[in-house]
Amino acid sequence: MNFRVIFLLLTILSLTSCLAPYKNIRTQEFDELQYPFPVKYLQLDDTTRIAYVDEGSGEKTLVFVHGLGSYLPAWKKNIAGLRNQFRCIALDLPGYGKSSKGVYPFSMSYYAEVVHRFLQELNLTNVIVVGHSMGGQIAMTLALLYPDEVEKLVLIAPAGLERFSEGEKKWFMQVMTVDGVRLTPVQQIRKNFYLNFYNFPADAEFMIRDRIALRGARDFEKYCYAVVKSVEGMLKEPVYDYLEEIQSPTLIIFGENDNLIPNPYLHGGRSRDIGRIGDEKIPNSTLKLIPNSGHFVHYESAEEVNRVIEEFVGME
Questions:
Q1: How many CB atoms lie within 10 A of CB 60?
Q2: Pick from 251, 311, 307: which is nearest to 278 by CA?
Q3: Which one of 4, 239, 254, 308 has the minimum C-beta count within 10 Å?
Q4: What is the residue-level pLDDT of the chain in tens, covering all 316 positions?
């Protein structure tokens, strides 16, 4: 047996070992997903139902907006750690999680409008909007469109601070396809999640298992469509040129070991450099870099992120 055959066999054995825990995952519908807190629903219109959780109480209200391909359970450590001081509300955006699926615009202004209407229905004003990745770009868009509604912004590894040329945008939209998302193999799903962390924590395994379980869900293709069109929405409605117009005091948080921002294929570089762009352009902003943390810094270093948020919200 030559070396090449031995290497191939070892590779197969390694992959089999890594993927073995996922072999018996049964298909789940989105509504069957296990959420860490009781789920409520708000019907915004005939086609849009928002799933959300509402935990804790306090003088200040934090509204959490998840990122691309994600869902509100990604905030569970932050809600658990902050609900003793604040009212904590996290929602699934249309197209994601337990919220309705459909052919929506999926632009950043559309999502900002959804959050705006959501806040109106719950009679919420002067909230602190906490957005991760795409949710950060949505939060900035909301603050630009409805400045009176946003008392403060917390941007966690936000999209929108990194610029893309027209050629880069075109490439991005060409490589992101519904079938590409829909047919992602288990090995790649696992790898994609690992890339979101500096050191993947065992208690984040539920994210991988949920993503695998949903591949057979009735609405899975609609979810894949939402992911693809959301990428297009981020690229077509950049906020970079309007950062100076953001009036809300803003906290920007990045993991120092973020593998996704800046884009590793198109730009490369360090997340701290992207964070500094926001810190320099947003008038009343503070940048916090968290060591040994990746793109999901709010989950990976939840205690530190919660501490920084609590301190920022308490500042006058």
A1: 17
A2: 251
A3: 4
A4: 555 544 444 444 444 455 667 888 999 999 999 999 999 999 999 999 999 999 999 999 999 999 999 999 999 999 999 999 999 999 999 999 999 999 999 999 999 999 999 999 999 989 999 999 999 999 999 999 999 999 999 999 999 999 999 999 999 899 999 999 999 999 999 999 999 999 999 999 999 999 999 999 999 999 999 999 999 999 999 999 999 999 999 999 999 999 999 999 889 999 999 999 999 999 999 999 999 999 999 999 999 999 999 999 987 6
State pTM to two decimals: 0.93
Token code pair at residue 214: 């949903």
CA dist 212 and 58 (Å) reads 37
Q: Which two tokens stand for residue 246?
A: 């953001």
Task: Please give the CATH number for the structural domain made up of 26-314.
Answer: 3.40.50.1820
Nearest Cα neighbor of 249 from 204, 305, 314 is: 314
Amino acid identity for residue 22 in this structure = Y
Beta-strand relationship, 127-132 and 61-65: parallel
Q: Map tokens 């615009």 to a residue.
A: 105
Q: Which two tokens stand for residue 164?
A: 């893309």
